[in-house]
Each structure stands twice: as structure tokens, then as C-alpha cells.
Amino acid sequence: MKMIPSQWETNRLTIKDMTQQEITTVQELYEQGSYIHQWDGGSLDKKYASRCFTEGDLPPGGTRAQFNIQVIRLKDKGNLAGLLTTYHGYPTPESFYINYLYMDKELHKKGLGREVVSELLSIVEQAEYREVRANVAIKNWPALRFWTGQGLNTIQGIYGDKEYGADKYADIELVKVF
């Protein structure tokens, strides 16, 4: 199985594997995005960055070797701009899973997320994966618009509560086939 590079670039960004020294700042960025839990029913994971670095955020039967956590930095300033976690080979060996993508709230609406995903999709396709998947909370309309706009526009499945309600949650798994 081919892994995405440990470091890669876009026009304005550098993306590289997270180091142990970055755990605290990455955790702060992750917590900045905790508002998504109003849409997915989850709760804040106070050890998310550390857990991802040591154990990974794994699917059933997954291994740490197939998981990747990468930081996204602005090329011009070197500032932490975002976080990307991915899994290589789930649910099939030909599948590439985008677990989590978050860009600093101060950088929203600047096209940086699109820039990351565009290059990532190119890398994944060159690595000969057959599909890319992402799981999105149905109530997270901005993320649904974003991912479908990036070509992940086929619904693989809907998981979670069967009925709508303020305290009910479900996710939609979106797929782009190459």
C-alpha cells in the first residue's frame, strides 16, 4: 500500500507529518473546531492530538501504520493553518479515507481547504487508490457543501439516528471514485 508523502505542498501551504512537539498547538486548533459537535453529537476529545500521534484514530481492525496526522502551515509565515488526518486502506485496500480536515477559523473562506483537498486528491489518485471517502455530519451544511464541491458527491451510506430531532444525529459517508 502506498502512503501519501510525509511532506507535500500546495501554492500557499506546506503539509507535513505532525511531530510530538506540535501536539499542544494542534490540540488547541482541534479544540477551536469543537463547535462541530453541535452537528455530530460528539464530545470534545481533550487528548485528540496526543491520541492521534501515538495510537491513531483508527477504523475497526485498523493499524497505526496506515493512519496519518499532518499539520498544514502557511508557506509565507509558517503559521499553523490546519489539521488533516487520513487513513490508507479503509474500508478496502483501494480506499483512502479522510478522517478529519480543519482549517483555522481565521483562515476560513480563503480557499485554503479547497487547495489542500485538490492537491490531496491528485496525490491519492497518483498513488492508485480507487476512491476517496469522507464522513460528514448531516447537520454540518458547510462541510456537506465543501466536500460535494470537491467531488465527493456519491453517497455511500447514512449512519446514526433514524429520525430527525434536535437531539438526534446522523452522518453521511461521501465518496469520490477515480
UniProtKB/TrEMBL annotation:
<dbReference type="Pfam" id="PF00583">
    <property type="entry name" value="Acetyltransf_1"/>
</dbReference>
<dbReference type="GO" id="GO:0016747">
    <property type="term" value="F:acyltransferase activity, transferring groups other than amino-acyl groups"/>
</dbReference>
<feature type="domain" description="N-acetyltransferase">
    <location>
        <begin position="13"/>
        <end position="171"/>
    </location>
</feature>
<protein>
    <recommendedName>
        <fullName>N-acetyltransferase domain-containing protein</fullName>
    </recommendedName>
</protein>
<dbReference type="InterPro" id="IPR000182">
    <property type="entry name" value="GNAT_dom"/>
</dbReference>
<dbReference type="InterPro" id="IPR016181">
    <property type="entry name" value="Acyl_CoA_acyltransferase"/>
</dbReference>
